[in-house]
Amino acid sequence: MNWRTTLTLLLLAGAIVSGWSVWTHRGESSDNRGSSGRSDYVLHDFELVALDGATGKESFTLRAPRMERDPGDHTMTMETPLFLLPDSEQHYWQVRAKTGWVSEKGNELRLRDDVRVDGPPEGRKVEMRTQRLNVFPNRNVATSPVAVTITQPGSILRGRGLVTNLATRHYEIKSQVRIRHVPPR
């Protein structure tokens, strides 16, 4: 056998192995596309108004500099979101955080890191601060399993674990409750 035949057979074997390798790995990359971290779409500097499916009324308004939608579970994550949640009188609670998450159907919001909740300017001023807050806009309920501080005229309330009704402004702190009365200025 001469050297040209040997070289041709080696090149042919290399081409077959390379082709088989490419064909095998091509199937793996297309199967893992959903878990690759790629988004369906990304929005920049936007405002989104979500409507309640049952009544067609505004459930919440969301403003953020960036939002991504996960192609697998259809949830959305965002950076520095501002949620505007209407109460029963159509006054808006402002809810801000460093990060946010919205469920596929928009019936649950999860806010994380430096969460700030400011009650509507109409009526008694209320401010809440926590690191985690879960909001269920269709039920006007917000919950937090961690430390929460609620400031309103005349008092500062601190504790762990929160359940609040945003429509009625009724708050329930689950444990480690401390209250400080602050005289009005």
TrEMBL record:
Key words, A-Z: Cell inner membrane, Cell membrane, Membrane, Transmembrane, Transmembrane helix
Domain of life, per lineage: Bacteria
Protein name, as recorded: LPS export ABC transporter periplasmic protein LptC
Organism: Cognatiluteimonas sedimenti
